[in-house]
Amino acid sequence: MAGSTLASPSAEPVVVPAKTSAAVSPGRETWRRFRRHRLAMASSVVLAILVLGVVIGPWLWPIAINDIDFSAQLQTPSWAHPFGTDDLGQDILARMIYGGRISLAVGLAAMFVATFVGVVVGALAGMSRRYVDSFLMWVTDLFLSLPQLPLLLLVIYLFREQLKAAFGVEGGVFVLIVIVIGGLKWMPVARLVRAQFMSLREKEFVEAARAQGATKFRQMVHHILPNALGPVIVAATIEVSSAIIAESTLSFLGLGFPPDIPTWGRLLFDAKDHLDSAPHWALFPGAAIFLTVLSINFIGDGLRDALDPRRVI
Question: In Å, what is the CA distance from 168 to each residue of 80, 99, 113, 250, 282?
């Protein structure tokens, strides 16, 4: 009709939902933070190369560790012997590959022993409020005050022959060294776990679990321990390097594995009388110990930064 106006329908505003970023899991966030620690990433690569070298090395370098060649005594590194030979003409590279598996296995096994004992003692002390806490911390301080190297030597001297008879020569020494090193390295982990438990047991989520009737064991295992694992993981990495150094020290003193089992420490012990004529004999196992311990320490630093929510990375 003339003169009439057509009312246009009112357009309703179109609401576009805001684009939300996908939630990042704690594991991926930890990995992202760890990757930004350059020294930790480089150390992870170095440690992975060392581990792969000792694991697949026998297939890539199939030379027996006990092959004796008197015509090749104390040879410097060459194509035939990349790391040189010892005073019996034995290939040092083959012996380092074999000994690396033992040194790394001792470090990891002793770390598990020390971490398990430390977590158990620290958790019991952190959840107790009176006499149990005082007694456990007294025991921890007692072990911390003991001189570790003389005690290591004494225990090995007293029990080495019995364990050799029970588990064999190599197995008995392995069990003894792991138990002794792990049994004398749990104290820092226990003190750390106790401090974490004493802090977390007063948090709101633990109070809520306690109000719902959760037992102390359930509070420890399901609520407090998962939140205290970050510092424990960092401490465990440090224990690996400490155990490797302790095993190397015992082998260097001639109280570790027998002479026919060439751990990295044992290679250093055998090379000490030939440092002037054959420095390569001590250089390569010493460098392997140095790189392994340094890499594990840097990885521990990276894990500490990645697991610390207060640090901005």
Answer: 34, 18, 21, 19, 29
Contacts of 134 (CB under 8 A, 6+ apart): none
Which three-class secondary structure string do you get for 74-134? Answer: CCCCCCCCCCCECCCCCEHHHHHHHHHHHHHHHHHHHHHHHHHHHHHHHHHHHHCCCHHHH
Helix 225-252 and helix 264-271, axial crossing angle in degrees, nearest 10? 30
Closest listed residue to residue 137, CA positions, set 188, 61, 202: 188
List the end-to-end C-alpha distance of the chain, in Å, as a whole number.
71
- For tokens 């107790």, the residue is 128
Mean pLDDT, all residues of the chain:
81
Count CA atoms within 13 Å of residue 127 on its CB side.
Answer: 17
Q: Tell me if residue 8 falls in helix, strand or coil.
A: coil
DSSP secondary structure of 262-285 = --HHHHHHHHGGGTTT-THHHHHH
**Unique residue bearing structure tokens 């090193």:** 181
Please give the structure tokens belonging to residue 118: 């430390």
AA letter at 218: R
Q: What is the pLDDT of residues 74-102, one digit of tens each?
A: 888 888 888 988 888 888 998 999 888 88
Cα distance between residue 165 and residue 160, in whole Å: 9
Asked whether the predicted pLDDT for residue 168 surpasses 80, the reply is no
**Spatial CA neighbour of 196 closest among 228, 218, 166, 165:** 228
**Span 119-129, pLDDT tens digits:** 999 888 888 87
Q: What b/e string do you get for 8-47 counting C-beta neighbours within 10 Å, with b at 16 or more? A: eeeeeeeeeeeeeeeeeeeeeebeebbeebeebeebbebb
CB 254 within 8 A of CB 269: yes
